[in-house]
Amino acid sequence: MSNGSARYMFAGHAIGAAARFHRLDEAENLNHVIPTIGSCVVPITGGRTECNSGVYRYDVDEPRRRCLFAIERVTAWVEGRGRDDRQETELSVEVAGVEVVEKLRIGAVGLHLLAHRTPGAAAVVSSKGSRIDGMRLGNVTAAITLDDEPLTKTGTAEQFVAWHTKAGRPVEQHGEYHRGTIVREIHLSGPEDELKQMTVEGHTIRWHGFGRIILGEIHVKGHERRVTMVRLAMGSDAGGDGTIGDTQTNGALPGG
Predict the structure, then answer these.
(1) Residue 188 C-beta-side C-alpha neighbours within 13 Å
(2) Residue 79 and residue 89 in contact, taking contact as beta carbons nearer than 8 Å
(3) pTM score, two decimals?
């Protein structure tokens, strides 16, 4: 039974990395699971959760010896705070020294978000910055230019779509979510023979012999926003999925 008073329900998470491999070379139906490394979730009543993870490696011997996934460090935190007239959800995730199937290497991935809500108003979002630094695909260097405006200029899905329409930038419908990106540009440089194995399609790199690398992906529904800095859809000599720097923030009155 309701006592007639509305209470704010906090929601948000920050995840360093996770992955799963179902195929290696010709070996099918595998289940190599990289457990979630650095996972923080804010309680529904608010508060703060922090996590720090050190060096992690996942090696296999079959069908050949190699390292499937490695990370040097993850630091993440999520905090929910406020009073009746203002609520804030803030999060940060930093991932350093990523290596995937001894092919893809990323020096650092980071994201910060702060969303505040006042009664009857849309969320206002700000950021201290995001980054994907030191990405190498074999001997090819990928320089990623990011733009936080699709996040910081939009507090709701309606505003998200309106901003993209005005800016002339694509936004897609993905189930109940509107999907966009904070990636402004991807520039690849390196040996010509390796570059021929790669194509850039918006915020996605297709790499023959590895799969797809989706960068700076945003999903927005209502006041909820989810940002995945790196999403892997692997489909060549190693098949599977992975994420690096996965975040979500939201908050609402019950039913709102």
Answers:
(1) 22
(2) yes
(3) 0.93
